[in-house]
Design brief:
With about 180 residues, this protein is an alpha+beta fold. It has a domain of about 80 residues. It contains seven helices and six strands, in the order H-E-H-E-E-H-H-E-E-H-H-E-H.
Length: about 180
């Protein structure tokens, strides 16, 4: 199932990269679902997490009973269309992670949205000590960019490294994931 979720997330990132209407929007950084080395927990340790759709997940018209590349692509297209409607809610997200569920017997999805913790004046000391670990001259505003850009090889798919080449050869296979 983790590989299937990662395939859907990769397709969503590909759709966003190709969408001219999204060129001015920040790229969505998805955490991998197959986190063999538990790297996600260190990436999100100091971040707030909220579900994008509350109180329940968003239902899908696509049938996900077979976990194939073609069903992942169809799901990604439907999910991407729905996520574009929530783009303003995703603008400040550091990371996203797709979750598949069932709602009233139908396939559904939700997105975990991880954002920087909003600071009050009393909590600024913990944030400045985090920044000091990264660099003694880094400001709090720069820390966000440093932490995002220093994540290569940490177990999530970076849209910046995505190419605009088509993945149709892998998308059309009927390989099924668990």
């Amino acid at each position: 199932m983790d590989e299937f979720l990662d395939k859907i997330q990769a397709e969503i990132e590909s759709l966003q990269a190709k969408d001219p209407s999204q060129s001015a929007s920040p790229a969505w950084n998805f955490l991998t679902n197959k986190d063999d080395f538990n790297q996600n927990s260190s990436l999100v340790a100091d971040l707030d997490m909220e579900q994008l759709y509350t109180p329940r997940a968003e239902t899908l018209a696509v049938d996900l009973s077979k976990k194939t590349a073609s069903s992942a692509k169809k799901a990604a297209e439907e999910i991407y269309t729905k996520l574009k409607l929530k783009a303003s809610s995703l603008a400040d997200a550091s990371y996203l992670q797709l979750v598949l569920t069932k709602e009233s017997g139908r396939d559904a999805f939700n997105v975990k949205v991880y954002t920087e913790v909003e600071e009050s004046s009393s909590s600024s000391s913990s944030s400045s000590s985090s920044s000091a670990v990264m660099s003694s001259t880094t400001s709090d505003d720069d820390f966000t960019e440093v932490s995002r850009s220093s994540s290569s090889g940490t177990g999530f798919i970076r849209p910046e490294t995505s190419t605009s080449t088509s993945t149709s050869s892998s998308s059309d296979s009927d390989e099924e994931w668990d």
